[in-house]
Amino acid sequence: MNKKWVYLFKEGSASQKNLLGGKGANLSEMTNIGLPVPPGLTVTTEACTEFYKQGKKLTDEIISQIKDNLKMLEKQTEKKFGDVENPLLVSVRSGAAISMPGMMDTILNLGLNDNTVEGITKKTGNSRFAYDSYRRFIQMFSDVVLGIPKYKFDYALDDLKEKNGYKYDTELTTDDLKILVEEFKNIYKLETKSDFPLEPEKQLLMAVEAVFRSWNNARAITYRNLYDISHDIGTAVNVQSMVFGNMGDTSGTGVAFTRNPSTGENRVFGEFLINAQGEDVVAGIRTPLTIDKLNDVMPEIYDQFIESANNLEQHYRDMQDIEFTIEQGKLYLLQTRTGKRTAESSLRVAVEMVEEGLISKEEAVMRVDPKSLDQLLHPRFDPIEIKKSAPIANGLPASPGAATGKIFFTAEDAVAASEKGEATILVRKETSPEDIEGMNKARGILTSRGGMTSHAAVVARGMGKCCVAGCETIYVDEVKKIMSVGDDILKEGDYISLDGSTGNIYKGSINTVEPSLSGNFGKLMKWADEFRKLGIRTNADTPKDSETAVKFGAEGIGLCRTEHMFFKESRIFSVRKMIVSDSIVQREKALEEILPMQKNDFKEIFKIMGPRPVTIRLLDPPLHEFIPTNEEDIAELSKDMNIPISKLKDLIHSLHEFNPMLGHRGCRLAITYPEIARMQARAIIEAAIEVSKEENITIVPEIMVPLVGKKEELNILRKLIMETAEKVKEEKNSKLEYLIGTMIEIPRACVTADEIAEVADFYSFGTNDLTQMTFGYSRDDAGKFISAYREVGILEQDPFQSIDQAGVGKLVDMAVTLGKKAKSHLHMGVCGEHGGDPASIEFFHKTGLDYVSCSPFRVPVARLAAAQAALNNKI
């Protein structure tokens, strides 16, 4: 039996998402539950994969099935493809299993030619509508199938409007549109050296191939890389009989969400245009009306739409994003999909749906993307400053948050400036999918056209970017690189500030403050904590970071890097004296200066963390990182230490290492300079004893020895630390308990983890260095080639962002197994930044670690990801 490559909508179901794509599966589901969906067919994602296997060609079998199903579609619609009397026109749209809004291409009105356009005219009695559809089709087809730039057609359209003194496209007459159609065909011929294809069947096959090709266009690849979507799943193609929103004042088109995608409010939220096609709404060419206005102009249609929207949300048990068209007073639903939403909206919808009894707490926890929580943790404008600032303009609050930066008018300029470390705001008339990289790099996005469902708004919300859209009071000249608001003219490089929650635009920069977390956030995090098995700690070296982490729910510190404390201005001089000392006596004298400072640091952190565990790593980086480089600092150190400048410079030069990552650092420093480790151990133990007494709490400090590769290294340092700790305890008459463990970050430590476990109380995996040493990649230099490696398929992801489970992960798994075999109660966690990556967290959960540790702002991400890992891996 031949493989089935093509399905009619009535043959599919929601369960076939991977085969039919999200759009195709939902169109089938809507058809089967009786909603008014124009009939159509879906060419499967498997056909897309086959298309690429065959060198970007449709096989005869796929073509045959498309033609056979097209005949069935003709019977369903009682129309015929290419017929002069009653022509069937179709739309051709992409539809991957994972929604990628705006990333791939769409063609409307396919099947029009010089004959069928007359057939449409006779059937509708509306020649203007017929030729308006025809000119749109030629432009879309030319752009999507042949890559002819849209602007070439836009120039012809603008010239004709200017010539006739028109402001809107709707003012074009039938004769104007006939002229435009011929001009558009001439543009096609000039660009391709061939006539525009007039055979509908040929148009359709060319369009299907073009949509399959668009799966691998640059913007689609960029989008998939940004959202970690596989490049292998392909897209389906949906061929749907056309219904027309541009047939006059009883027709229209719109996009709506069953709840507000920005705030989550439980009210249908959307926009529509009278006498327009769907692309007009999302492209932002005309600023649309809000959905509630539909009740004024077509109350029956409004009631029918609200009822359908509610039915869809109840059926899918999630917020829906619906596209609809009204054709001469009749409602059609063209698509539904799970609605893209901000983190704020995602939280509110998930929590309220639990309270409404629509979903369970487990489902709510699984509904929210952990990475999206980062949107909630971004700053807002300082309320005192914002009161003093008057907005220069107001647009639509398309994506919440606040952003300040320099204006740039092209995606390329925004990317270039951002890569130089500048804060940027991308300002456009309207964005297009080609702007994806600039939008990703910019702090915020401002458009002068478009609505709340425009490309800029939808993509910005998905990225968590502040966005103000449809600000019609600003004029944007992208060629001259200026924007004007009344008499104010702002040029590239000038500062503006955007408030994506109010739509306000301010001249200049405005300071921001930390956000307050909503009640919905607290509820969802509480549920997540009920389900997760992994503990969540933070990487923190300062009281401020510790406070932030506790506020976000951290259960302890998994990594306190003591070297970060050494860099403080008040103590760097003492550290440098310690480094250049030529005797133990001199070195110990310098360390005596550092000791009270280091102890006070630990005391502040212990007070904030209370009884929560705190893992403190002994000095890790090579000493040359602390030494002075400018002449003034060298001269000051030379004078204080009574060392000739020339000799000091020689000493400084000698401390530089050829490969510091593999050099004199970590436990090697503590073994060669044991007095440093003694000072740090004393500072930790004294601080813990003092805070335990002052705060009347039990503190059990965890002292971590970095970069151990052999059991003997840890054994030597364990004895040294214990000697110091017991001496301090005796001095202070204390029974303080403490743990001594190591950071597993060398491959040899992983494969001999059972030996190291004999002298360790705990392990913490330093997956950043473990990744460097396993791959042989320098984290600082790998950026030069990792993107190329991802493009050619050597790497699926950056291994410094998400753990390499097949290699680095195998070492972690081996070390966990060996460690627990040697010491069953061995406490194990991870303190590399992988501890805040959801995919890595799921791996660590399955590996059997006790906790993950990450930066303070990723703590909520880790809490939610850990809960999802537990729910995904229920035994």
What are the defining features of this structure?
single chain; 875 residues; alpha/beta; Dna Ligase, domain 1; Glucose Oxidase, domain 1; TIM Barrel; 3 domains; eight-stranded mixed sheet; 33 strands
Describe the model:
The protein is an alpha/beta fold. It has 3 domains: 6-244, Dna Ligase, domain 1 (2-Layer Sandwich), CATH 3.30.1490; 379-513, Phosphohistidine domain (Glucose Oxidase, domain 1), CATH 3.50.30; 532-622 and 657-872, TIM Barrel (Alpha-Beta Barrel), CATH 3.20.20. 47% of the residues lie in helices and 17% in strands. It has 35 helices and 33 strands. The strands form 7 sheets. It has an 8-stranded mixed sheet. It is elongated, with a radius of gyration of 32 Å. The model has no long low-confidence stretch (mean pLDDT 90).
Q: What's this model, at a glance?
A:
The protein contains 35 helices and 33 strands. With 875 residues, the protein is α/β, with parallel strands linked by helices.
Number of strands: 33
Proportion of residues in helical segments: 40-55%
Biggest sheet statistics: 8 strands, mixed
Q: Would you identify the CATH architecture of the largest domain?
A: Alpha-Beta Barrel
Which helices and strands appear, and what pairs or packs with what?
Layout: E1 6-8, H1 17-32, E2 40-43, H2 45-53, H3 60-77, E3 80-81, E4 87-88, E5 90-96, E6 106-110, H4 116-124, H5 127-146, H6 150-164, H7 174-192, H8 200-214, H9 218-226, E7 235-241, E8 252-257, E9 269-274, H10 278-283, E10 289-290, H11 294-297, H12 299-316, E11 320-327, E12 330-338, H13 343-355, H14 361-367, E13 380-381, H15 383-388, E14 393-394, E15 396-399, E16 402-408, H16 411-419, E17 424-428, H17 436-441, E18 444-447, H18 455-463, E19 466-469, E20 474-477, E21 482-485, E22 488-491, E23 495-499, E24 504-507, E25 512-513, H19 519-531, E26 535-539, H20 543-551, E27 557-561, H21 562-566, H22 572-580, H23 584-609, E28 614-617, H24 631-641, H25 645-655, H26 667-672, H27 674-695, E29 702-705, H28 711-731, E30 739-744, H29 747-751, H30 753-757, E31 762-765, H31 767-775, H32 783-791, H33 808-822, E32 827-830, H34 838-847, E33 851-854, H35 859-872
Parallel strand pairs: 3-4, 16-17, 17-18, 18-19, 26-27, 26-33, 27-28, 28-29, 29-30, 30-31, 31-32, 32-33
Antiparallel strand pairs: 1-2, 2-7, 5-6, 5-7, 8-9, 8-11, 9-10, 11-12, 13-25, 14-24, 15-19, 16-23, 20-21, 21-22, 23-24
Helix pairs in contact: 4-5, 5-7, 5-8, 6-7, 13-14, 13-19, 14-19, 19-35, 20-23, 22-23, 23-27, 27-28, 34-35
